[in-house]
Design brief:
The chain has 230 residues and is of the alpha/beta class. It has eight helices and twelve strands. The strands form three sheets. Strands 2-1-3-4-5 form a five-stranded parallel β-sheet, sandwiched between helices. The chain has a four-stranded antiparallel β-sheet with strand order 6-7-8-9, with helices on one face. The chain has a three-stranded antiparallel β-sheet with strand order 10-12-11.
């Protein structure tokens, strides 16, 4: 799993809000399914694999707290974000007792929700992400910051390694420029953006003798690590 191809189960009974959230998440590269009540949400969860659940609390048939508890029985580790109009401290505490990883009260901004989703997924990925990647004939060890093939060993700088690792975590997916800049450089200003372009050029040069691997510019969005499997 990577943050950009994660499957999200969204359970929201407000048709307009639910459709808006689902479409927004899909536009950001996520695979999002929408269910209108807790019972249908639970059936969907048991049927398919999901990487994160976003649950409204005031749901018909089965409320969000009960749904979260049932989901936790099926998968104790899946991250859950609650959405609710409630803002009382007791409701927030009950949400965390029910297994919430995060909690947002309505109204909220789509951008903030997206950042919280990414943060929760990064924590999940961090526990499962292997540090070694295969790039055609190369083996990339992100811990040792080394690219190795039968012919040569390439020692990478920290920025090169961090950027290549992020590309490897999003194979055949668009890596958004702003996301990479804020994750690695901590700021998406103009000078850091130009610096990242330089590092992308260096990484391309390192991999230039491996025809199965390409790093494409996606205009207005970012970069895509293209492998022969795409």
């Amino acid at each position: 799993m990577t943050t950009s191809n994660a499957r999200i189960l969204l359970v929201e009974d407000d048709v307009n809000l639910g459709s808006l959230l689902r479409d927004y998440l899909k536009a950001k590269g996520y695979n999002a399914d929408l269910e209108p009540d807790g019972e249908k949400g639970y059936r969907a969860f048991k049927k398919d694999h999901y990487d994160l659940c976003i649950l409204d609390i005031m749901l018909p048939i089965k409320d969000g707290f009960s749904l979260a508890q049932d989901i936790r029985i099926q998968n104790p580790d899946i991250p859950i974000i609650f959405l609710t109009a409630k803002s009382m401290k007791t409701d927030i505490l009950e949400g965390f007792r029910a297994g919430a990883d995060d909690y947002m009260t309505k109204p909220f901004s789509m951008e903030e929700l997206l950042l919280r989703i990414e943060a929760v997924l990064r924590r999940t990925i961090r526990t499962e992400q292997l540090p070694v990647f295969t790039l055609g004939k190369y083996i990339f060890d992100s811990n040792k910051q080394v690219l190795t093939s039968a012919e040569k060993i390439i020692n990478l700088t920290t920025k090169e390694s961090d950027l290549l690792k992020m590309l490897c975590q999003h194979p055949n997916q668009v890596l958004e420029r702003n996301y990479a800049l804020k994750s690695i450089w901590k700021d998406d200003n103009y000078f850091n953006a130009r610096s990242m372009d330089v590092y992308i050029t260096k990484i391309r040069k390192h991999l230039s003798d491996e025809p199965e691997i390409q790093i494409l510019n996606v205009h207005g969005k970012g970069y895509k690590l293209l492998t022969a499997k795409d």
